[in-house]
Amino acid sequence: MCRSFRTVFRVFTFLCAFWLVLKAGNLEAESHRFVLIDTQTGQWVREKTLSSKNFEGIAKASGWSVRKEVLHGGKQESVDLITLENGAMAIRIIPTRGMSILDIKINDFRIGWESPVKEVVHPQWVNLESRGGIGWLEGFNEWMVRCGLEFAGHPGVDQFTDNTGAEAEMMLTLHGKVGNIPASRVELIIDKAPPHRIRLRGTVYESMLFGPKLKLSTEVSTIPGSTELTISDEVTNMGSDPQELQLIYHTNFGVPLLSEGAEFIAPVQSVQPMNAAASKDVEAPWFYAAPTKGFIEQVYLMKLYADSNSETLICLKNSEGNRAATIRYNVDELPCFTLWKNLTTIENGYVTGLEPGTSYPFNRRVERSHGRIPVLAADETRQFTLRYEFLNSPEKIKETVEEIQKLQNDRPTETLKSPPE
Amino acid sequence: MCRSFRTVFRVFTFLCAFWLVLKAGNLEAESHRFVLIDTQTGQWVREKTLSSKNFEGIAKASGWSVRKEVLHGGKQESVDLITLENGAMAIRIIPTRGMSILDIKINDFRIGWESPVKEVVHPQWVNLESRGGIGWLEGFNEWMVRCGLEFAGHPGVDQFTDNTGAEAEMMLTLHGKVGNIPASRVELIIDKAPPHRIRLRGTVYESMLFGPKLKLSTEVSTIPGSTELTISDEVTNMGSDPQELQLIYHTNFGVPLLSEGAEFIAPVQSVQPMNAAASKDVEAPWFYAAPTKGFIEQVYLMKLYADSNSETLICLKNSEGNRAATIRYNVDELPCFTLWKNLTTIENGYVTGLEPGTSYPFNRRVERSHGRIPVLAADETRQFTLRYEFLNSPEKIKETVEEIQKLQNDRPTETLKSPPE
Amino acid sequence: MCRSFRTVFRVFTFLCAFWLVLKAGNLEAESHRFVLIDTQTGQWVREKTLSSKNFEGIAKASGWSVRKEVLHGGKQESVDLITLENGAMAIRIIPTRGMSILDIKINDFRIGWESPVKEVVHPQWVNLESRGGIGWLEGFNEWMVRCGLEFAGHPGVDQFTDNTGAEAEMMLTLHGKVGNIPASRVELIIDKAPPHRIRLRGTVYESMLFGPKLKLSTEVSTIPGSTELTISDEVTNMGSDPQELQLIYHTNFGVPLLSEGAEFIAPVQSVQPMNAAASKDVEAPWFYAAPTKGFIEQVYLMKLYADSNSETLICLKNSEGNRAATIRYNVDELPCFTLWKNLTTIENGYVTGLEPGTSYPFNRRVERSHGRIPVLAADETRQFTLRYEFLNSPEKIKETVEEIQKLQNDRPTETLKSPPE
């Protein structure tokens, strides 16, 4: 018996190994790949447009294309920009700015916002330490920018362990570095099998001696002809010591989606104002006012309900009720949701931020004291997946709202009326 | 009566509108235009020489040219430089450094100075926060650099209103940012009508969320064959809140114009030393010494007399009395004049600065306390015009001196002997 | 007698002058020269490979080449890199990073180390002021990087004389600026006479108004076919005031030369731990442990014995005893030797630094208080010469060890057991 068990076990092991080899081979066979940037091999494509014509066996009629270009002049000089046109929408991704997403255009409808910063700013112009640690804002105009990785949130002094093993202090700057680090590797991947998902992968390192050794492997993907995009990120601790991680997906919407009467819809378990200005409207932060001169930003900290797989769904609906943006994500991966309402004038930057995060945007020192900072062990990887969809019919929006109501499931929303101490 | 008045009024309105349309059309018709840089449209000319040959109807014999190039190597790498050769002098303008003017050459006579900084430094190498906030000096070698726009003058802590509406503090760095911001748009304009004035326009934005939203529209212009140039600047508050503005035209002269016996001539209403080193020579700051080892810089704060249109005139005359530079400007626009004498050795940077400004170069905190900071309302624009001329005959210099004496008109010069407290 | 003496003297003077003129002419005649970068003349070669074929009269068979290229993508974008292949080894020099030496390859054996920083980082990505003044580490991965010139060593506040002649304070950042300043001039020189030494000269300026005016003229040279290289540096004070100077040759070795059982061999007169972690192993800092998780860096301050010409010799030997690196230098030029042992895991940056310097790596404030900061008078130049050799036979290593023992000459090594106060 024992002997035949061993035989079975050996056969099983062999089959497993065989399957793994096959699987690895398939990974290559399953997709077309094109490297745009790779600093290790010295590959770097200055300007190139790729489309279905460049890859065998991909449907000719899909009408998608990927264009890599280099911007010039002003603060844009030397910025790498990639425009992923999927046949239904154009997504602009900025390898030079940590694979942030500048904006999305669906025909003439732009998803994004009007920042006082008009150019795609090369990080060489951004001194994160400037203005008491808020220099990050000098480049901030993206639809989606990641805050992190070593730290995110408000500037301020925090403790760290220095090269001598001693406790030291350092100034953390607003929202960390990753949005101002260029990707070291960018690769385009097209699934050979229908629906021929287009994937743009970027690798960004936040790594140094006596500092973090974090690697962000990000993928923005979309199906040709759809108005959906998925962000699939992995953050790995490449070092041999435990490493704190903060990551906030700072997703920003301005006109035309945002205007008076627009509405934020989510299955909210609890909501609390982060600052005094938010306290006065905490009973109904869901509604948006018109651009308002002298408006002081309001920030709300939320916990969201989710389904049994920890998946949640949030929605920003326009005032006419015929356009919306939705985000589906996992609250185990991103337990802290922050709603940022900066309803100032258009000139000053009328915008709302929907911000799923590992933490809230207090300084890391504060977040740590509340136990909201994940720590990655050596070689540990965490995954973060966000699925964005842009809706353009009242029917679809209605379905979404119903789905959110189902997540809420008549459970109460706890409202804390004043900011945390 | 009333009815015919209305008719007249309507006709008048129509004629006004017609005239405006015509005028707008004329603006295009009046000039040749060539865009060299425009980040909004993606235009960027790497290398190009334009001259009368490129534009119809411009006199062939004028001998002017405009050359756009990109510098390479060292700290110059990627610097955009424009050389405007008007037939009598060559003006070098640096779009990458906020449209500063590097120097002017009249045949072999160079207007400018010998800074210890020898290259045209790309701002990527300048950390304004460095050395306790005087990092600006690591790129400083221009004949004319603007200090501003949000702040100018000495480094130091000042108050500002942060994104939460609260009073916060920030470190202001020496002479502000605008000299280290690249122009987002540069356009060459040639008047079709004689004398075919050549205009180089540049737009520089000092703009960000929760910060200033200032736009500098600058024009450097000159008439072919002349040794005059005019700076016509406009600063606009693009934001919807009031915004402080500081602007100093830091115009610097070294050898050969400056040497022992050179003289500063101006209609001085009052003069006061800014620092202790200036106190000892405050009775006669007009004269220049030879390069002096160990010389400590002297700074003098002045009010100047002007004519009934508020126009004043100042002059820097060489020791032989056969070369001079003059500046005509409006004391309502630029009420504060600062004379900077840094008469150290040639190696250390022998130079004098003639600095018309909205303010004196104290920290903004100090200038504000003296009411010397203009505040721009939302959408408000201020204009600043400076006309520079380079003279090369004793006769012309004599005329200039007489004109200055006429402005002084035997009125006294008040001398305050010690620095302001 | 007196008269004939004068005649003899005149003839002697004339002959000396004649010889000097001849010599100057010979300098040109003695070598082939090729300018790769010169910001004063506007010369800049983007990509070029030079070899014996490009120069007349140089042996065809020597197999050397010099390749200039520009790196692209990620933090490497726009970095100038020069690979000097001498037939026996390939030396990679980075003009954009102050002429640092990235690494050396002898066949497949790499001299260098595995930093968590994987790219050749353009200084535009390095904010020296970051992380409390240790931003330098964000670009640190070279085999040999100079620390200096105005200051080197630990970050911290130090006094300096400001532009008004007053004592002021400024934050010194880790290891100074020179490793993050691009060369303004790079020239390749090939000796016409055998052994046709190949010299790569670079000029780096650390110069500004109201700051240092230091010029580093560096030469890396090697003889075709050898595994030796010589660094011949000159630092000149171009200003007219005395100027402090600090210079540390931070030479770093990781795997494969460094591993458990590797050994540092030197004629040590005295050794003292710089930090507490070093104290416990101060009796035998010569031996290296394997990569060790949680290892805290150990730093040792040493004085070395030298021969009658003040020449000393140090050696890093691998564990097998068949590979070694040696450095010969002058202890009058570089009196302070620092041994840095950072025996952490490979991922975290397993490395040892052999660091001949004008000073130890305390903050300049501390070094000054111990009289360890050379001051250059106006126009004064100091020379620094280091000869590196890479050995690959036990016999040669044995000879080297014997030579070091001869320098030690049975004299004692004084061991101070605790760090300086």
UniProtKB/TrEMBL annotation, chains A, B, C:
One of its GO terms (biological process) is carbohydrate metabolic process. SUPFAM superfamilies: Galactose mutarotase-like. InterPro entries: DUF4432 (IPR027839), Gal_mutarotase_sf_dom (IPR011013), GH-type_carb-bd (IPR014718). Gene3D superfamilies: 2.70.98.10. One of its GO terms (molecular function) is catalytic activity. This is DUF4432 domain-containing protein. The lineage of its organism: Bacteria, Pseudomonadati, Planctomycetota, Planctomycetia, Planctomycetales.
